[in-house]
């Protein structure tokens, strides 16, 4: 049995982050088929006794799917309005996907301010515990329609890390459009080496080349490493894996897919 499979089987409380690229088809619209299949995989985890909190990107992708004419508008007010429209559609599709599995969802839209205010962060924690204890799947996203630079987290990798810490999770699973961490960008460097396990993040930074963010997402490798830096010091392991592969969650649990596991300190 693989280290990844072992780590997932031992974890009871898991925060799963799904990136925009995983939720988008090649034309930039929502991949609702993926969402339905992913909800099925989450139900299997819940049935096995695990608790799930989902951090879902994709409001802008969903907005483009709904109002295609705004896809090329770059003005910040249009982008925030697009996220406002898209967030409704995103949650609608998640609600439908989980409803098929007999599960209800709850929505939390957060900003950096919410985590820095003790009273609000306590309320978030209590809400998460209540939802999960009652069998509801919490779905979290950044409140992009009202965020500005001073209160913006900026990416859901770090948002999911903050969520994992606040909820006292055992594992943070980041699903992206890459298999894990490589020594260099495997799309441009065929000799890039895959890294299965990271024990020291400071050593990792000295040995890899960090590229830019991709087309739909706001993160990139840097924000994923930042997320690992946040969680591992709290004893929370982090796994980075490709969410776009078929039955990705099932296969990771069964040791059939690879990823990069960041060990807790």
Key features of this structure:
single chain, 265 residues, alpha/beta, 8-stranded mixed sheet, 45% helix, globular
Could you characterize what this model shows?
With 265 residues, the chain is of the alpha/beta class. It is built from eleven helices and ten strands. It has an eight-stranded mixed beta sheet with strand order 3-4-2-1-5-9-10-8, with helices on both faces. A two-stranded antiparallel ribbon has the order 6-7. The longest helix has 25 residues, at 76-100. The radius of gyration is 17 Å and the shape is globular. Residues 213-218 have low confidence and may be disordered.
Summarize this entry quickly:
With 265 residues, the protein is of the alpha/beta class. Helix content is 45%, strand content 17%. The longest helix has 25 residues, at 76-100.
Radius of gyration: 17 Å
Approximate strand percentage: 15-25%
Low-confidence segments, given as residue ranges, are 213-218
Number of helical segments with 4 or more residues? 11
Structural class: alpha/beta
Q: How much helix is in the residues?
A: 40-55%
On the 0-100 scale, what is the average pLDDT?
A: 88
List the helices and strands and how they pair.
Blueprint: H1 3-10, E1 13-18, H2 20-23, H3 32-47, E2 51-56, H4 59-66, H5 76-100, E3 105-110, H6 112-116, H7 118-133, E4 137-142, H8 156-167, E5 171-176, E6 181-182, E7 194-195, E8 197-198, H9 201-207, H10 221-232, E9 237-242, H11 248-253, E10 259-262
